Amino acid sequence: MQNASAVPVYDVEVAYSSADAPLGLQKFHILSPTGSVAHYREIKCPGVGQLLAQPRADDARIDIRVTISFTDARGVRWIRDGAGHLSKDPGV
User: Fold this and answer.
1) Total tally of structural domains belonging to the chain
2) Does residue 1 belong to any structural domain of this protein?
3) Are strands 86-88 and 9-17 parallel, antiparallel or unpaired?
């Protein structure tokens, strides 16, 4: 993950899904600014681990989609969908 802003973001939720099913949710209280450097966090989602552990052909691709939502320093909730589009969270 990367937080290119100058201030932290809060209540970060990372939702993982495969092409046909949700895999789980991972939450972080805060993500500090990282500038242009990615901030690596261990994926702690049992559904992702189970999908990766399934037998498959060596050349098989795994499609894992990630949706990230967070609250900015002004209290606005944002969502970045699986296609990478960032918008205000309509559910708030």
Assistant:
1) 1
2) no
3) unpaired
